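input
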Amino acid sequence: MRLEIPSISVDTDIIDLGLDTDGTLEVPPDGKAAGWYTGAPAPGEVGPAIIAGHVDWEGTDGVFFDLRNLEPGADIIVTRADGSRTVFTATSIEHFPKDDFPTDVVYGDLDHPGLRIITCGGSFDETARSYTDNIIAFADIV
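output
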C-alpha cells in the first residue's frame, strides 16, 4: 500500500503494524515508512483505518513531521494492495496528551470509511525519550 498527502509532501509506502507485547500499537522501524494497524479496517473499508508514523527519527524529519500543518479539507490518498485508490478528506487535526489518548474516538466504530493518522507531537521529554503528545489527523472518505 502507499500513502500520499500532497499538501504536506507525504508520499510513502505503508507497512503492516500489529500490537507490541504490552498491547500498545507497534510503530514503524524507521522514520521513512508509515504503518497500517492490521487489527483495524483497511483504508476504504467501513470503520476507522489507523495509520501511524514517526514525527522524527535519529535527528531527521520523519514521514509525519509536517502532519501538524495539515489543514482540514486536504486530500489524503491511499493506494491499496489491489491497486485501487481511496481518497479521504482531512476533517480535523488534533493534539492529545499521550497520558489522555482518546482511544474510543480513534478506534471506535464508524458507519462509514474513516482514517486516523497518528504521530508524536508536543514537547520532547528528555527523561522519557519521548514526546508528550500525539497529533491525530481525522479524515473521512470522499
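quick obs: Residues 103-107 form the longest helix (5 residues).
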